[in-house]
């Protein structure tokens, strides 16, 4: 029986050692069990948080197209390697920023909803929530992003999920109104599109109006819209 000897070249050994050192270099805060220590996690989370905060400010100030990843690096005081470790592209970073903003908007609405009772009061509260947010610069940046190019399916899916998540507020409120027999029974999804179109459209129309509108004017339009809506949808 002939033994076959497997030779490992000096080059192979040095490459393996270099790879090992590279891994060690990135494993900041490792414990003896090979798990990432709390300091390593904390530093990474803080870096990501700072990137998102500074990127949000840039997108708010300049829109989507005018912001560059180099600019984000400088503003957030991070290296390109660190930035691309957390976000693989400007698209990824922007969508994350918008998703986080949407989550915050929904959380604020959930808090307001829990402070109100009754369908009518909640509809007025939802209208006020939209009125306070209609000039959100990220909405304009999102519109710019959506129109700026042809997006791959995964981006289109994320955009659809962002939009659908904003419909949750009106969908749940309409469902509650139907379930409690406060609102006329009908096609829920049709109701959602109509109500959401109204709430989003008021701010848009007011924004492009020739005559300047004050925040008080905008709030008045939203409240009047809800009054007319409920007048037509109540069961009694």
UniProtKB/TrEMBL annotation:
Gene3D superfamilies: Homeodomain-like (1.10.10.60), Tetracycline Repressor, domain 2 (1.10.357.10)
Domain HTH tetR-type: 45-105
InterPro entries for the chain: DNA-bd_HTH_TetR-type_CS, Homeodomain-like_sf, HTH-type_TetR-like_transc_reg, HTH_TetR, Tet_transcr_reg_TetR-rel_C_sf, Tscrpt_reg_QacR_C
Residue ranges flagged as DNA-binding region: 68-87
Coiled coil (residue ranges): none
Keywords, in A-Z order: DNA-binding
GO terms of molecular function: DNA-binding transcription factor activity; transcription cis-regulatory region binding
Pfam families, A to Z: TetR_C_5, TetR_N
A biological process term (GO) from this entry: negative regulation of DNA-templated transcription
The protein's name in its UniProt record: TetR family transcriptional regulator
């Amino acid at each position: 029986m002939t033994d076959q000897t497997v030779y490992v070249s000096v080059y192979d050994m040095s490459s393996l050692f270099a790879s090992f050192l590279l891994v060690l270099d990135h494993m900041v805060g490792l414990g003896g069990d090979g798990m990432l220590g709390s300091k390593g996690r904390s530093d990474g989370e803080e870096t990501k948080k700072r990137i998102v905060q500074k990127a949000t400010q840039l997108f708010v100030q300049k829109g989507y197209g005018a912001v560059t990843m180099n600019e984000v690096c400088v503003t957030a005081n991070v290296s390109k390697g660190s930035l691309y470790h957390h976000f693989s592209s400007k698209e990824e970073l922007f969508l994350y920023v918008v998703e986080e903003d949407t989550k915050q908007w929904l959380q604020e609405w959930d808090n307001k909803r829990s402070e109100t009772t009754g369908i009518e009061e909640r509809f007025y509260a939802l209208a006020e929530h939209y009125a306070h947010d209609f000039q959100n610069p990220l909405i304009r940046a999102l519109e710019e992003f959506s129109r700026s190019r042809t997006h791959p399916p995964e981006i289109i899916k994320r955009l659809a999920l962002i939009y659908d998540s904003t419909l949750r507020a009106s969908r749940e409120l309409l469902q509650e109104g139907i379930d409690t027999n406060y609102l006329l029974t009908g096609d829920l999804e049709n109701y959602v599109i109509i109500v959401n179109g109204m709430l989003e459209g008021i701010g848009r129309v007011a924004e492009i109006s020739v005559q300047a509108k004050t925040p008080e004017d905008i709030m008045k339009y939203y409240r009047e819209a809800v009054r007319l809506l409920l007048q037509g949808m109540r069961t009694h």
